[in-house]
Structure formats: structure tokens, C-alpha cells
Amino acid sequence: MKQVSFFLLEIIFKIDIDGLEVYFPYDYIYPEQILYMGELKKALDAKGHCLLEMPSGTGKTVSLLSLVVAYILRFPDHLDKLVYCSRTIPEIEKCVEELRNLFKYYEQCDGKPPSLFAVALSARKNLCINESVSSLRQGSLVDGACQKLTASFMRAKRRLRPDLPCCAFFEKLDEQKDFNYPDGVYNL
């Protein structure tokens, strides 16, 4: 009887996209994902806009994140942020999960995650920390109550009448602009 040895090979999946080394956190990549990343890189190089389309389930999110994170790390003066918008909270959560996986992959490959800050944002009704506003729960009511406390015309009135209500958090926001958030991926 023959003895068979098995070795666990750790494959580091890095792809060259037009001279840019891109970490890809999965052990298989579709040709369409490579083409997608190539077109995205061309648009970033040209400092332009692009409209890319791929069918559902073909890895658009991980392709976009892999390419953009690599691009930001390589060319921080050329691109310093990605604003990723999505219609639903589950879609945002999927994006955050993919980004966390990508950060873990960088850590696995390089011994440290990328030095980047990522945060998922949502509507006021999900993120407001002013209890008198957030307790209203309905989006339009939360938005209206927030505007009554933070709109520039209301803040101007408050300078004349300090007894008018305000949002203490919003009023202190300018003082906290220099706060450095720690690198990482943060979710709702």
C-alpha cells in the first residue's frame, strides 16, 4: 500500500492589473472579474468616470474593492477615498463583509492589514444618537426633527435665542474634526 502525503499549500492570490498588484481574497477568479478590474483601473488612471455592469453573483463587489484598495495603497495622492453607495442595508453589510475579508487577506499576506479606514453609513434613522430624534423611528420624522436642530437657519436663530433646542452632538462636531479614527472596517 502506497503512503500519500498531503501538504497544505497556502496560495497567495495576487493579480497584475496593468502594472498594479491586486490582492484577491479568493482562490478562483472569473475572467470577467479581471476584465472588470482592468476597465476600472483605466478609469481611475484617467481620473474619469466609468459605468461597469456584470451579472448578479459574478463578484462585482470583491473585484471593485480589491482593485480600489490596491490603487489607494499604491497611489494615495491620486485616489484617497471610495464612496460605495447601495440601496439596502443587506447590500451595505455584504460590502463591509467583503472588505473585512480583503483586509484579513492583506494581513495574512503582508503580516498587517492595510492602513485604511472604512465605515458603513446609513440614514439618520439608523445612525442618529440624539435620543429625542432617533426615538421617532420613521425616516421622514427623524429627518424633520434633525433639520429643526441642525439647519443653518435654526443655528443662526439660536445665536439670538440660546433657549431654543439644539443637537449637542452636532454642535460639538466641529471640535472633533481633527479626531483620527483607527484603521479598520466599521459597520452599523
From TrEMBL:
One of its GO terms (biological process) is transcription by RNA polymerase II. SMART domains: DEXDc2. GO terms for cellular component: nucleus. Gene3D superfamilies: P-loop containing nucleotide triphosphate hydrolases (3.40.50.300). One of its GO terms (molecular function) is DNA helicase activity. Residues 19-188 form the Helicase ATP-binding domain. Pfam families: DEAD_2. InterPro entries: DinG/Rad3-like, Helic_SF1/SF2_ATP-bd_DinG/Rad3, Helicase-like_DEXD_c2, P-loop_NTPase, RAD3-like_helicase_DEAD. Keywords: ATP-binding, Hydrolase, Nucleotide-binding. Transmembrane segments: none annotated. PANTHER family: DNA REPAIR DEAD HELICASE RAD3/XP-D SUBFAMILY MEMBER (PTHR11472), GENERAL TRANSCRIPTION AND DNA REPAIR FACTOR IIH HELICASE SUBUNIT XPD (PTHR11472:SF1). This is Helicase ATP-binding domain-containing protein. It comes from Litomosoides sigmodontis (Filarial nematode worm). The lineage of its organism: Eukaryota, Metazoa, Ecdysozoa, Nematoda, Chromadorea.
